[in-house]
Structures are given as C-alpha cells and as structure tokens.
Amino acid sequence: xxxxxxxxxxxxxxxxxxxxxxxxxxxxxxxxxxxxxxxxxxxxxxxxxxxxxxxxxxxxxxxxxxxxxxxxxxxxxxxxxxxxxxxxxxxxxxxxxxxxxxxxxxxxxxxxxxxxxxxxxxxxxxxxxxxxxxxxxxxxxxxxxxxxxxxxxxxxxxxxxxxxxxxxxxxxxxxxxxxxxxxxxxxxxxxxxxxxxxxxxxxxxxxxxxxxxxxxxxxxxxxx
Length: 224
Ligand SMILES: [Fe+2]
Ligand SMILES: [Fe+2]
Description:
Blueprint lengths: L2 H21 L6 H33 L3 H22 L9 H30 L2 H15 L16 H25 L5 H19 L16
This protein binds fe (ii) ion (FE2) (2 copies).
C-alpha cells in the first residue's frame, strides 16, 4: 500500500475516533470518554511522529515548496501537542474540557486537509508508485515504534526529533502498559501505579528538555 492509501485509511480512523470521543461525553461511565480520548491520542501522536520522521523529510527532498509546506503542517502538529497536553487527564465535566477537545479536533481536521489536498497530492504528481509504496512501508514501520503521547517541547525535525524517538517511545509505552494493567486489574492497584506513572511522565519531560532533543527545531514550532 502506498503512503497515500495508508494516510487516508488513518485519517478516516481519526474521524471515527473523534466522533466516538464526542459521543462518550454523555455516556454514564466517565471512563469510556477517557478511553476514547486515549485511543485517539495514541493514533494521532504515532501518526504525526512518523510523518515528521519519514514523510516530511522526503517531501522536503522532492518538492520545491517542501520546506514551507511541511512547516505549516508541523505548526498544526505543534498546536495539537500543546492543546492535548492541557487536556491530558482532565475530566469531561471540568471547565474548558469540551472547548480544548473541540480546538484539538478543529486543528486535526485542518491538518488532514492540508496533507491530503496539498502534500500528498503533490507527492503523487512527482513520485513513482514504487517510491510511494516504499515511503508508505517506512512510515508504517516507524509509526509502530513511535512515542504515543504529546511532547510539545521536543524538536519536530531531525536530528532532535530522531534522537528523541527511542527514549520517548520506551517511556510512553511503559505508561501505556501501566494503564492497561490498571484496567485489567479493575483499577485495584491505581493508587500504587500512579506514582510510577508520574515518574515515567517526569522522565519523559526531562528527556524532552535535553538541549540535543531540541536541535533542528524551527522558531515557529519551538516552545520554551
Ligand atoms: Fe496524516
Ligand atoms: Fe499530520
């Protein structure tokens, strides 16, 4: 499958998960909404990380307008990171929760349109079907080993983005496993797992702030 087919399939999944997150705003069990948001975040952040690692560098090599075009999309990704970081862990009844969620969804819609209508359309004109398939395969591979959570401080471009992949993936997926364990055990050990989760989150925050992880960042997507 080419990068075009894989991206479209993921974008459609994204639409379904956003609809699910909206539906669960009224469900009797609050945890359903939290689960829907986590599934959505996992898709969004692995998808975007692999774009920044594989797809955008390829677009910058092939398209004369690749640099400003990918920078516009990276700015959308940055805003999603910022908004979801604010949203993270907030209950649906908290003030501002729905507004933050809708803001993230609006930016995600915009991101998808720019990618499908501009970036991928241009790549289809300039790359052979074989190269589009190879790009799709590489993107898929990187997506499966990408960080799963927002990291607004780390660089959106290599080399910082590439260097951050391994430590952030290990820490994010460690937190995902703790969450799964908590669900599987009926939330019986929640209070014991919470400090470990906080320690992993703090470690990820520290990794993000290493100066080497911020190398390659553009001013437009940089965060203090
Ligand atoms: Fe995409
Ligand atoms: Fe994207």
